[in-house]
Write a structure and sequence with these properties.
The structure holds two protein chains of two kinds. By secondary structure, chain A is of the alpha/beta class. Chain A folds into two domains: 183 residues, Periplasmic binding protein-like II (D-Maltodextrin-Binding Protein, domain 2, 3-Layer(aba) Sandwich), CATH 3.40.190.10; 232 residues, Periplasmic binding protein-like II (D-Maltodextrin-Binding Protein, domain 2, 3-Layer(aba) Sandwich). Chain A is built from 20 helices and eleven strands. In chain A, the strands form three sheets. In chain A, strands 1, 2, 3, 6, 10 and 11 form a six-stranded mixed sheet that branches. Chain A is globular and about 65 Å long. Chain B starts with a helix and ends with a helix. Chain B has a single domain, classed as Orthogonal Bundle (MetI-like fold). In chain B, α3 runs parallel beside α7, α9 runs antiparallel to α13 and α11 packs antiparallel against α12. The radius of gyration of chain B is 23 Å and the shape is globular. Chain B is mainly α. Classes of the chains: A alpha/beta, B mainly alpha. Chains A and B meet through α3, α12, α18, α19 and α20 of A and α11 of B.
Amino acid sequence: MPKTGPSSLSRRKFVATTAAASAVAVAAPYVRGAHAAGQLNIGFWDHWVPGANNTLTALVNEWAAKEKVEVKIDYITSQGNKNRLTIAAEAQAKSGHDIFAYPTWEPQAYANLLEPVDDVMEPLIKKYGKVNATVEYLGRANNKWIVVPATVGSQIKGPCSRIDLMKKHAGIDVQAMYPAGSAPKADQWNLDAFLKAAEACHKAGATFGIGLGITSDSVDTAGAIFHSFGAALVDAKGNITVKSDAVRQALDYFKKLAAVLPADAPAWDDASNNKWLVSGKGALIMNPPSAWAVAKRDAPQVAEQCWTHGMPSGPKGRYAPFLPYFWGIWNFGKNKPAAKSLLAALSQREAAEKMVAASAGYDLPSFEKLTDFKTWAEEGPPKGTLYHYPNPHNHQVLSIAAAPAPPKIAAQIYTQGVQTKMVVRHLQGEAMEKTLAWAASECEGFMRT
Amino acid sequence: MQRKSTIAFFMALPLIALIATLVLYPAGYAIHLATLNKSMERFVGLGNFFFLFKRETFWMVVQQSCIFAITAVIFKALIGFVVAHFVHNIPARGQRKWRGMLLVPWVIPPAMSCLAWLWLFDPSYSAFNWILALFGIEPVPWTGHTGWARFSVILVNIWIGAPFFMIMYLAALKSVPEQLYEAAAIDGASWWQRIWYVTLPMMRNIIAITALFSLIVTFANFDIVRVLTAGGPIDTTHIFGTWSFRVGIEGYDIPLGAAVSLFMVPILAVAAVFILRDITRRGNES
């Protein structure tokens, strides 16, 4: 006998409609049946850009009015890890919001508590193109999508360079290398050129502002550079690969680079590089456009000289740090069909475009056909400064530090900042092999189940 | 008599319930968590503790927690003792003003005062370094170098905690009978002898209890290290609380985080037993 409960009925309707209409419209599938209306509790990330939350609220309200669903939104800050603590508490209590905005590694940590969302993701991929490998790596478990990549909060942390200082001290014209409105001409932009530029700028007193702490900005940069050498600490099968030539090369390179970074880089957090740029001290930082946006407000003369562009390439390719946010549904959520419908609606091009505009270009959708919004082309000054931010020409591989290790191990390598700690240890005089042995021991500790 | 104790029990019941809810339950739950595997699906007994014994970082955290707590408590006690004497010798009229001012570091919420210290130590904009630069001295990596970072977190802990010692010692000083000093003066005791033979013996219990209390609070500290260094650089300022948070919440290993935090219990229990036994012994002697 078929189930006739309200949830299964609505869910079936949702799935059936999704399948039928996937080629037409993804936003439409949630058919409001007799039991479909109800309440939806949402825990979104509290955006740092003033007004960005309002845009998201308006989009949700618009959907809610159409679907006759009562929504309650909590904006939860990531300051002090409040959102992660809330997620941990809800996972323990198996009660809380229906939808939550999960930071990068959280979906994998709570994979068994998340509702599969293949029925949301597949139509979206059909419509807007595939997502990058990092989103797949973080957003899928047991061959199923467990979360939807969120536009809000997702970011690429590539270089944000000072046009004038790079030209003056390193002889590099970043605008010519990454021209607004057209494909990059950055074949010569490799790690050697990057190191030479870093040395020249340091000598001239315009040191690159790259941290070596354990917060995400530092870890992401280290991760991308390690990837560029093909250096993984743990491979996809879970084997420890720390003592490899690729890791040695990456560490050796980083030691040279770290020597021309600020002396206190090991103490940097995610605010330090922003302050470095805004102060006018540095020729380059690795950050999404938030630092530029702050400069626009606090130091317009600095902002006018900022250009966001791609990463230098290494022996194994050109890798940029990508840090996605996800929207997911707890499997103990009470209104899953409505939740899926909302996530599909928020992932539509029009909605994503509004979110990107509200965040002044900071937020990024993860689908390959959603990298051409006019916000990125038009934001300034200087106009076009964000054109290359969303990787419109697929010029670089969007990656995350510690991949391709199995995500539960990678999450610990990432949060413990093992790669930056390796760099600092080696920089402070520890022998390469001792550093590698330490890192191998740390990774071994992360293997426990 | 029986009736009176029943009434007393019922009157204390709300407090007992509060303690059970806010202290006993979380403590019991932490013990339960510490006995689970990483995914919290399986009972592993003491497996998490044995795992920690094999980790280099864990022993570094044990060492740092001891350095942090013991150094900070010694300096807080010394500074508190000296300042309490100064305040005690101020004429009564002006004393309240000084007492109030000296308590400020202790009454400001630590998270807030730590943020102010963070700005003073800021890697790029340290106010201290700015002053040093005026004298041509090279900038100091306050939170970027192991030695300096440890110094910084201990310094802030002393700054916040010394007023507590000061006020406790001041109260103890005020309770020392004036006649004892007069008798010592008649016997020709020097300033140092008065401190050593009169003041210190009379304050011994307060000193011991204050030190014990402070040791517990300092060992269990979280906010100062979290705000100033977050345990860095390369984990060399982590203490039990901050490392537990990093492993448990940020590292997605709640059982291991719980096991780390529970390590404070035996260390503090041993300290408590020794100090309280000494106090009881002296109480019995007197």
